[in-house]
Each structure stands twice: as C-alpha cells, then as structure tokens.
Amino acid sequence: MATVPSKRKLVGCANFVRSNPLSDAFECEKFDHIEFWCGDATNAAARFGVGLGMGLRCKSDATTGNGTYASYAMKSNDLTFVFTAPYGVESGGSRGEAPHPGHEGRAMMRFFEKHGLAARAVGVRVKDARAAYEEAVKRGARGVLAPTVLTHTVDDGCAKGGQVIAEIELYGDVVLRFVNATDGFDGDFLCNYSATRDAPDVSYGLQRLDHAVGNVHDLIETVDYITKVTGFHEFAEFTAEDIGTIDSGLNSMVLANNNEYVLLPVNEPTFGTKRKSQIQTYLEQNNGPGLQHLALKTDDIFATVREMRKYSHLRGGFDFQAPASDDYYKQLKAKIGDALNDEQYALVEELGLLVDKDDQGVLIQVFTKPVGDRPTLFLEIIQRIGCMRRKADSESFEQAAGCGGFGKGNFSELFKSIEAYEATLQI
C-alpha cells in the first residue's frame, strides 16, 4: 500500500502559532517515570543518585525474589528514574518473581548491547491504561505490552492496591508506558517493588521531569505517528534556521498532551552543513532513534547546580557543557531585562548557566555532557520563571507548562559547546 503523504509542514519558530485543541485520545495526566535499561543497575542507580540527588525508594532484585533482573527506583520529589539490568541470561527465560511481565533477560541484554545505558520506557500516568492502549492501537499504534493487571502482594507496610500497565512503541526501541493505579495503590513505582525504608531521603531540589526529547531519522513521519495514536498536539517547533549555527543543525517539533505537562520534543538531523549534525551523531552512536535528553525542573537552579557541581570532579556526578562566551554574559542583561536581579545575573555567569525568555516567562538552563561513554544521552537542568495561573476550582496557583520556552535564544551557544566537545572525540 502506498504511503499517504503527510499534510504536516515545518514553518519554524517565528511562524508557528501555538494553540491547544484539547485533542487527547485518552485522559493523560503527567509523566510518571523514566525507566533505563543498562548493564549494571546497582552502579547506574548509585551514580544518578549522587549526581542528581535522588534517593532509592524501592527495588526488585535477587534479594526480593526477582531472579530475572535487578531494578532500582530513584526519586526526588515527583521525579522518578528507574534503572534495570538483567542477570545472567543463559537460560533465556524468567526465574523467580519479576514485577514487570514483559521484561525478558535476553531482550534486555540485546537492548543494552545495541544502545548502552538508554531509556527504554517513558511512563505516563493516565486515567485508564486499558482504555488508553485500546484507543491508541485502534488509531494505529504498534502494541508492545497489552493491558496487564498488577497486584501488590509485597507485605512491606508501604503500599497496597494494584495497577494496570500497557505499552506501545514510541520511537526506535523506546516505549510509551501507560500506568494507572487501582484500589488506592500508593507505591513509588510498580507493584511488588519492595520499599527501601532505611535509605536516606536526599534531594538537590529537582522537582519533576519537564520534557523528554527524542531523536529520529524522519521528524514528520514520527510526529504523524505519535499525534495520530495519542491525539497530542504540537506545542512548539524549530527549524535549522532557528538554531543560529552554520556547523550543525536540527529540525524539532514539541508535542504536548491536553494539560501540556507531558512535553515530548522530537528532533531530526539536517544535512549539507560543514560538519555532521549532533543529531546524526546520536543516531549513529545509539544505533537508531532513541531518547536524547531529559529536562529536569527545579525551583532553584542555582542551589541545584551548585550541589551537582560538588560531585562532578569525583566522577560520581555529571560534567557540564562548557559555559557560554564572555560576550554572551555581557549582553545577557540587555536581552533578558529585569526578570533577574543583579545577584542572579552574577550567579548565572558563575555557574555557567544560559537564560532565555519568550512572551510569557523566563527559562534558565544548563546541560550536562553525555552521561556515559557514548555521545548519546545527556541531561538538562532548568528553572522556569513566570506564567503563574490559578488552578481550576482552587484558590492556589500553578505554573503553566513550558513557561519561557525551550531556550531558542541559547541554541547557538549550546550547539557550539556540543560541537566543541564532539570535536574532541575520535569516533
């Protein structure tokens, strides 16, 4: 059957008009978690715990009766990262009680051999995971895990009830995982993970996942697929002309659910530039599409980054991209205005942060270097300022999602830093 040409066209940031058609195919609330598959879950979880200030909240491994894989859920406020790695896979089958019915040892090992440490699942909290899966598949989604009922049977005194989970393909080997609690389940991840009540509760101030960015070969094809199966709408877009560097480029579309707290930017490489696009480098090193970076929101980026930098030189934390040029900081106040005070401007320069604004608010951001050996996955730390609105049926206020944009005004400085880093690599 011939492929129907897409009607979607990139128009660039200047010509894009934001609107919210409230078009979700199912009720989607927010990000629930990100699950990484890796080669050694113990060390990966410990590294991110130290580097980001996340505490171990629950686990499933050989000590809890799971003989198939080790898995550790780390949290900081509403941010949940899960690190999962298979045990020996010679038998090829499941051994012991594994909480996730779709996690098979050999498949997990193949994933790690192909991608290295990488995100396997973008978990989103929905009202009804079964209904979300069935509607998505009806609309053309490629199913990975049919709706499955989980019941919490671990007697740890910390959780009860159950869940329904289901998964569809998102892009590459990444799945979009639907999760909803049943019977008052209040655990920190999935049913039958054992709570680690003795673990210290640490935090550097990270609050939640703001957006999760994927890199793909064909932007329009991927966006057409995701919007068709989820009903999500386009929130923003950028073209190579918006980037402001002649050496590298990308095209990007940002997708959002109805309340716009699930933000899914998708990037593709552009060609014909002086050097290979950093997106193309990712696709080659990741052996295909995948999740490129995660933006982690804090309410005090100065305190968060200062704490993170304490551990960079110990190799227990994360290294940051090189700071912007002196000219960038000299011109910053004229660009941003009085949204920041003099002390904050000084801290921005001291900590090597970037600042941008849109017509609604201000974004302060900083990027790490890749978290592993491959130039693939990296992290973004952000703070959004402004855009406060009254909650529905409440006297309290909340910040509108995406306040301050995605750092379009910083693309040039960011890409120069990434390009300079990649120039040091011989791969």
UniProtKB/TrEMBL annotation:
A GO MF term: metal ion binding
Domain spans labelled VOC: 30-181, 208-369
Keyword Repeat found: yes
Needed cofactors: Fe cation
Binding locations of Fe cation: H211, H293, E380
GO biological process: L-phenylalanine catabolic process; L-tyrosine catabolic process
Origin organism lineage: Eukaryota, Viridiplantae, Chlorophyta, Mamiellophyceae, Mamiellales
Record-stated family: Belongs to the 4HPPD family.
Organism: Ostreococcus lucimarinus (strain CCE9901)
Keyword Signal: no
Keywords: Iron, Metal-binding, Phenylalanine catabolism, Repeat, Tyrosine catabolism
Record protein name field: 4-hydroxyphenylpyruvate dioxygenase
Cited Pfam families: Glyoxalase
